Amino acid sequence: MAACSVLSIQAAQPASGVNGHFYRLFAPLTFYHSVANRQFSVLNDGCDSLTQAIDRVLLNVYLTRPDLVKNTETKLQEAGTIRDDVNVPIVQHVELVEQVDPTPAEVEVEPVQQLMVKKPKFWTMKGDGSLQFMQNYVSENWYKGGESNYSALGRLTLEANYDNKSRWKWDNKLELKLGFQTSKSDSLHKFKTNEDLIRYTGKVGLQATKRWYYTMQLIAYTQFLEGLKSNDRRVYSNFLSPLNLNVGLGMDYKLEALKKRLTGTVNISPLAVNYRYVERSWFEKKKADDPKTWSWFPSRYGIEAGKHHLLDLGSQLTANLEWKINDNVTWKSRLYAFTSYKRTEVEWENTFALRVSKFISANLFLYPRFDDAGRRDEGLGFFQFKEYSSLGFSYSF
Length: 397
Hints:
The protein is mainly beta. It has helices spanning 7-11, 23-26, 33-40, 49-64, 73-79, and strands at residues 30-31, 71-72, 123-136, 149-163, 168-181, 192-207, 212-222, 234-235, 243-257, 262-277, 283-284, 309-324, 329-339, 344-355, 360-371, 383-396. The protein is rod-shaped.
């Protein structure tokens, strides 16, 4: 019984392999009866000096402070060892399948030899054109009178717009219109123009908010050919007669409404300059074989007789809207208003397009105008009005 025994010490020895002799000094204080047995034994039990030293420390505590002893070696042995689970064998449950899916072959990725980076697309181009015809036949004995005539109208609109997707934009729009008509009652002219326009609109804008831009706008317009009236030798307009230039500084608003079916821009220019040039002001061909011979008539286009220029400072408003009423009907509207606070000029162009098929459409054009710089009409005053309807080919790109 007095033999050196470390059974209880080995049972509490940690799994890390640290010497278990010192465990008795730092574990909760326990009364080991083997310590007392070895002290009263007359035989040499063969214990090493370290075990004997630890026994003497424990025996000193047992004799001087028995109140600190909480457990006994017998109770620890009855409780069992701490790491009984390490003796339980670990069994793995493996499920085997009849056939293993083949491992997909890895795709060999070739190294990139050349990397292509596309530049952002800042420019957008678009356009549309049409060629419209109209024929009207009236017999000589028609009870309401009238005369037969033919007319044709060609129209081309080109747009090139720049937007750097940040703050700057630059819009460019060129409109060309030229139409002719015949009239049997006109003994002086075989053909006359019924529509004649060359107009460029350019806007440079710096974004202020989501829809507002600080803008400088330029509008320049004239016509291709002579403007004539039936059985009248006077030429009312010609190329560069008049030529109108309008420059305005202000704000431009980008409009989107009705689920983006109504789109366009509205420009407000509190500061605007209107310049008008007339090479020949309302002249008359005196001789058919001498078209350069002409004489001055009273003022026209607000320019005094004998002068070629007109310069006005004022304010202007322009609006360009497009409303897709449905899949077949579209309304395009342009409003232009300028005032020098001495004279006022307002133009409102409206085009209703009915698409019959992909390449055929019918158009109705309504154009009221107000200009108090011209001659006053006895019936309409300073108001003017123009209207036509046509059917023909149309194409957008």
